[in-house]
TrEMBL record:
It comes from the Bacteria. The modification N6-(pyridoxal phosphate)lysine is found at K37. This is D-cysteine desulfhydrase. Keywords: Lyase, Pyridoxal phosphate. SUPFAM superfamilies: Tryptophan synthase beta subunit-like PLP-dependent enzymes (SSF53686). Its cofactor is pyridoxal 5'-phosphate. PANTHER family: 1-AMINOCYCLOPROPANE-1-CARBOXYLATE DEAMINASE-RELATED (PTHR43780:SF2). GO terms for molecular function: D-cysteine desulfhydrase activity. The active site is at S66. Pfam families: PALP (PF00291). Belongs to the ACC deaminase/D-cysteine desulfhydrase family. Its EC number is 4.4.1.15. Residues 10-279 form the Tryptophan synthase beta chain-like PALP domain.
């Protein structure tokens, strides 16, 4: 099984402004392999399968609610490929069945190996151990970000996207914005909305894209995965007004920050802005479990 390229619709978000805002619905690619995860895996998986490995095996890394873990597991099921997830945190080893992301990944055939947070941070050593244990496997980095991922992201850019002045995406590990930056038109400005407070991101993106046409904007509320009541209200209001579901970790924070920038008139008049919906909607189930325990408003899904 090889991942095919797919055409994705662009929809306008109506604003009573002299600025036009559009959303490219990458979340519609696949129910479980959605958004940028699809494209970041595109070249990684296809180039691996082109080598005709005798026993195809995918290994990757992620936290308990990782969109990437969920996507790799789903891809493995569709392609009849064995998958192994290296999961951060031994403390969930005996209760992972309570986690909706890991439960879904397991149902899609993924095996798990839980490691300490200290060991997880040392990805280089961990990867070397896995390479010796599984020499035939494709080991995909956390979030899927590498040079192959950047090449895959170019498929998010089409003839239609060339007409926009600004290209916007949420940023986690940096692969998506690096790919958009690398393949954007000369006249286009690329805006990345950071879901994580990582000081190394700018240099990482710059190295992968080799261009300086991008800007990183804080959108993480001080902590990766933090969900404020304001975030929840924005996501629910957006769904009610425009009929589009946003996730609480990436696209919800990007669109909220983007709306605030438009309201503050930070874009020139007549600007055409394109934001990419990078999927990740499976994370809503885990978020709502946490919100229930905190007796807070839920994300309507």
């Amino acid at each position: 099984m090889k991942i095919p390229a797919i055409s994705i619709p662009i929809v306008e978000i109506p604003l009573e402004k002299n600025i036009r805002l559009f959303l490219k619905r990458e979340d519609l690619i696949h129910l479980q392999i959605s958004g940028n995860k699809y494209w970041k895996l595109f070249y990684n998986i296809n180039s691996y399968l082109d080598r005709n490995p005798a026993d195809p095996f995918l290994i990757t890394f992620g936290g308990a609610f990782s969109n990437h873990i969920a996507a790799v597991a789903a891809l493995g099921k569709e392609g009849h490929l064995k998958t192994l997830g290296i999961i951060r945190g031994e403390e969930i080893q005996d209760k992972w069945q309570e986690n909706p992301t890991l439960k879904l990944a397991q149902e899609n055939g993924m095996d798990f190996r839980f490691v300490t947070r200290e060991m997880y941070r040392d990805k280089e050593t961990l990867t070397q151990i896995l390479e010796k244990e599984f020499p035939q496997a494709l080991i995909i980095p956390e979030g899927g970000t590498n040079e192959h991922a950047v090449e895959g992201i170019k498929y998010m850019l089409t003839e239609e996207t060339k007409s926009f002045d600004y290209l916007c995406t949420a940023v986690g590990t940096g692969g998506t914005i690096a790919g958009i930056s690398k393949f954007a038109e000369e006249k286009q400005q690329v805006l990345g909305f950071k879901a994580v407070d990582d000081p190394s991101l700018y240099n990482k993106v710059s190295d992968l894209s080799t261009r300086n046409n991008f800007q990183l904007i804080e959108a993480h509320d001080g902590k990766y995965g933090k969900i404020t009541d304001e975030n929840i209200r924005f996501i629910n209001d957006f769904k009610q007004k425009f009929g589009i579901q946003l996730d609480p970790v990436y696209t919800g924070k990007m669109m909220k920050t983007l709306f605030e920038m438009i309201e503050k008139k930070e874009f020139p008049e007549e600007s055409r802005i394109l934001a990419f919906h990078t999927g990740g909607l499976q994370g809503i189930f885990g978020a709502n479990e946490l919100l229930k325990k905190q007796n807070r408003e839920l994300i309507r899904f």
